[in-house]
Each structure stands twice: as structure tokens, then as C-alpha cells.
Amino acid sequence: MGAVSLRTAGTDDIGAFIAFQQDPVASHMAAFTAADPNDLVAAWRKWSEILADDAIFAHAVVMDHSVVGNAISFEVDGVTEVSYWIDRGYWGRGVASSALMLLLERVPTRPLRARTAVDNARSQAVLRKHGFVQIADERAFADARGEYVDEYIYELN
């Protein structure tokens, strides 16, 4: 595996981010994404808003000079949360773990939270590897699945 790095995401990355979310397997696994990942206008607008928001820190995950995902930190109800998305072609290669490690170095705030659908065992393993512990579970509507889904909430202190 090549070296994984993070860089501040820009508008040039939006096309790649949208393409990752158009993968139906990946979108199902992530669960809490856009209802219609093929609505390119809405996706472009959403990513433009994310990149323009000074309270959101969006990074492109880069490997071998290619964007292979994103890693983001943002605030929800006064608590900083992190999220990441890795192109399915790179799953199982340690990219998510490396990206999260790099993101944790850039986000010194603690506690940090992360969420994952209960059936997303790989993401849960990545979070636990970096010291996150499950603190709660919730049920929320997952647009990508069109139904309510149980999710775990993890925290890193």
C-alpha cells in the first residue's frame, strides 16, 4: 500500500467525492448519505456548502497521488464528530485506519464522536483500533437505505 495522506479538500475534489457516494454497495454500508446519490446537482450543492463552512474541516484522503476518500470533522450539538469515506476499491487495505489516524492528529478536540450503522463492522473495527468506545446506540432514518437503521455512537476521550 502506498502512503496515505490528508490535504484540505477543495472544489476540485467534489467530483471524486460524489463518485464514491454513487457506489450502491458503499452507500448502503454508509447508510446515512443522500437519498439519491445520482442527483448530481444536489450532491454538488451539498459538497459546496460543506467546503464553504468554516466550522467543517474537510480533507481529501490521498494515496499514490489519487483521491481515494474523504475525512471530515464537524460539530453536532456542541460535540465534535468525525466521519470518513473510502472508495470501495481501497477497502480492506488499511486506508480508513490511516486516514482516521491522520485526522485525529489534526483534530485535538476531545471528546470526539463518530457514528456507524450497526452492520458496518469494518468501520466499527477502525474506530475501536484508534481508541473509540461505543457509548450509545440510536435509531435514525438512513436516506441511503430508505428506512430507519440502528447506529452505534462511539467516543474518543
Describe what you observe in this structure.
The chain is an alpha+beta fold. The chain contains 5 helices and 7 strands. It has a 7-stranded mixed β-sheet with strand order 1-2-3-4-5-7-6, sandwiched between helices. The longest helix is centred in the N-terminal third of the chain and has 13 residues, at 40-52. The mean pLDDT is 96.
Overview in brief:
The protein has 5 helices and 7 strands, in the order βαααβββαβαββ. The protein is of the alpha+beta class and 157 residues long.
How many beta-strand runs? 7
Helix-residue proportion? 25-40%
Approximate shape: globular
- Which regions are unreliable across 5 or more consecutive residues at pLDDT < 50? none
Amino- and carboxy-terminal Cα gap: 30 Å
Strand order of the largest sheet: 1-2-3-4-5-7-6
- Gyration radius from CA atoms, angstroms: 15 Å
The biggest beta sheet is recorded as: 7 strands, mixed
Average pLDDT, to the nearest integer? 96
Order of helices and strands: EHHHEEEHEHEE
Number of helices, where a helix is a run of at least 4 consecutive DSSP H or I residues? 5
Structural class, judged by helices and strands?
Answer: alpha+beta
**What share of the residues does DSSP label as strand, in percent?**
35-45%
Features:
alpha+beta, seven-stranded mixed β-sheet, 5 helices, 7 strands
Furnish the topology, listing elements before pairings:
Elements: E1 4-8, H1 14-21, H2 24-30, H3 40-52, E2 57-63, E3 66-76, E4 79-86, H4 95-106, E5 112-117, H5 121-129, E6 133-142, E7 147-156
Parallel strand pairs: 4-5
Antiparallel strand pairs: 1-2, 2-3, 3-4, 5-7, 6-7
Helix pairs in contact: 1-3
